[in-house]
Every structure is written in structure tokens, then in C-alpha cells.
Amino acid sequence: MSRRLLGVAITAALAVTLTGCGSGGSGSSDNTLEIWIRQAPDSDSAKTAKKLGDAFTKASGVPTKVVALFDDFETKLNQQAAQKQLPDIVINDTAQLGTMQSQGWLQEVDKATLAGGDQLSDLAWKAATGSDGKFYGAPFSAQAFALIVRKDWREKVDMEPPETWEDLAKLATAFTEQDPDGNGQADTAGFVAPAGTKRGYASWYASSLIYANGGDFIKPGAPGKYVATVNDPKTVEAVQYLQDQFCKTKTVNPGAVSNDTTISHEVFEKGQGGIYLVGPYVLARFVTSIGTDKIEVLPVPKGPTGGPGTLGEGENVYMMAGSEQQDAQKKFAEFAVSAEGQKIGMNKDANGAIVRLPVNNQVDMAAERQDPRWKVFQESYANAVYAPPVPSWTPIRQDSADAINAVWADCSADVKAKMEELNTKLTQELQSQKAS
After folding, report:
1. According to the model, what pLDDT value does residue 82 have?
2. Both 350 and 229 in a single domain?
3. Gap between the Cα atoms of 233 and 235, Å rounded
């Protein structure tokens, strides 16, 4: 048995033991509702999550314990599952739904009986849907991607906001070659890219341009089944475009092929690059660290043969299996998706938002956030593309990141040939998940 199949067998066995076993949370011995969220402990985002938990307690009388974890989040969840001590609630990425649902960790959500469920966007509900068409999470937060650009640099090199990929490449070249920071040194780059393989970042970064060109990694086939399409010419064109930035024009920040977002954020803040394709969650941080008058948010230009499109992401509230507090779980989910819960999570214009774009249509984002740059992300969300609800998106993203990173790190690599190899690998992965 392969290592991957053995892992699936083990987690399936664990899921069977979890079903019907009251967990009571990983450290709870009373009626406290334990809530896990993927955020760094003591961060501004963790503090916002605590505010949400406290507000829920005040409204419902149900005590809460908010646990903020970032590193090895899934590993720690697996450990809790093995001990039959899953938390009651997990606020986690939409892309993790398939993995958690296939392991039997999630309770099904009845959209019709979830108070406020009819106020949530259809696109957000789509990201809470499993491969069987059922809902396994309550939509909580959404985000699309856009370009955060050094406006002062763009004005220094006397160029207009890019409207095409060719314009974008020219702007990146100008940022690299024309000393936009005026220090007399060749120490600036055009693109800031988290292009490493850790947690699939190279794939994550490339996906917005792939979607902006009408490409994809996999697409639906028969109901509940998928076909690998990463060898599609539109996808190849997008990856080739980025390889050209790494290898021909050399407009990407040095060391990008080894970087994750933690390092890339700092690269942008230090003025080592001027174009950052990223989500809205860092906007408030950059406003503070760089200066509000120095940055702007611009939409990702439509690709030459497709688009428009951008990566769509977000978080769902997952009600975990095995909890003895199912009524409290549902009440928390309903509070989190309510207008009040969404506003708390948005945290206005301050750093620490855990609701990036609200999913509740009763929330007026412009009334909550005065920074008009958020509107660009909101408008981009209309064409956002979420990871499909395959049983496990994680290995697909990781395999894609490994292949894409390889063609950026090795300038002699043939992009089309590498994408053909990746397509075969993704087909095999879909077969192993019985999703082909």
C-alpha cells in the first residue's frame, strides 16, 4: 500500500471512531465552546477572533475558548482527531473543506435551517460545498486577489496603471531598471512573489494569472468527477509569462523561488519590489508600514487569451463532528455569519481583520471601511475562482507548486513539457482520490 493510501486508510479509521464520540473540545471539561482559528497567537487577527468569541458569549450565554494557531495547523488537528478531542468549531480555509470532510471531521450544514443563511452570497456557499453537493461549512469570509503597487514608484517612472499583461511587464521592468526609489542603486525589482513550494505557494501565486487567462488546474467532468487541465494552452501561457519575468526580464525579487508570504510581505515593506499580487488581508498592514499615499490597489489585468479571473479564497465556520454541543455550534455559526458577527470580524480599516470581504449581503462594506482600495478586491471577487471540492485539494496544489516552482527556478526548463508532466500527475492524483 502506498504511503498516501495508507494515510487515507488510517484517517478513515480515525473518522469512524470519532463519529458519535463526544469530544467536548481539546481541553474543555465543561460547556465551553472551543474555537480554533488559523492565525498567529497574540496577533491582531487572534485578538479580533477573541472579540468575536466574547461577543457571541455575551449574546448567547455560551462560554467560549478561542485558540489561535498558525504553524502546523492541520498536523495539530490530526493529533486532536487521533485523541478523539477535536475542537467544537474550526474557522479554516475553504480549500481545506474536502480534506476535512473526507476524514469524517465535519458535520453537514442545513442551509435552509441556518439562521441568516439566505443572506449569504451564492459564491460563498459554493465554497462551502463538498464533492457530494452537500454543505459542510457556514461561509464566513471571502477574498479575491489584486495588485498592491507602489504608487509613488509608478508616478516616478511616469507610467499609467497597467491594463494588459504587456503593460504589467513594462511596469515591472521600469521598477527594476529605473531606480524608482531614487537611491542611486540597482536594488529594486518589479514583482514581489512568494514563489516557494512550502504549503504550495508557487501554485497559489500563479493561480490568479492562470485564472485571469481563462486557464485552470482541473475542471469538472461527470458529476462529482474532475479532469486535469493544467496542460491547457491558456494555463501554459500564464506560467510561461511568469517564467519570462523570472528568467528573461529578471523583474522578480531575488530569492523569490524560496520565499513564502511571511518573507514576501517584508520584501515589499522594505522597498525591494513594487508589485505584489496578494489578498486584501495585508492592506492595513502596508498602509501603516509603508504609508497610505505610497500604495494603490489595482485589478489583475485580463490575460491575452482569457479572463477576467482571480483566485478566490476565504474561510468557513466548520462545525466539527463528535461535539457534545451541537446546539451551541450552530448558534455560533449563525452569529459568525450574521451582520453583527461579520462587522466584528471585519475590524473596520484596522489591521487584524478575520473577515476580509463580508459574505453577508446585509453588510455595507463601504460603511464599515473608509479605505476605498477595498472596493477593488470586492469587485475582483465577482470573477473569483475557488478551489474545487475534490476530496483533497492539498496534494493537487502541492504537486502544482513543485512543478511551477521548478520552471521558475530553472530557466532552461520547457514550460509546456513540464505542464504536460504535471497534467499526468494530477490525473493520477484524481484517480487515487476516486475523483477522476
Report:
1. 93
2. no
3. 5
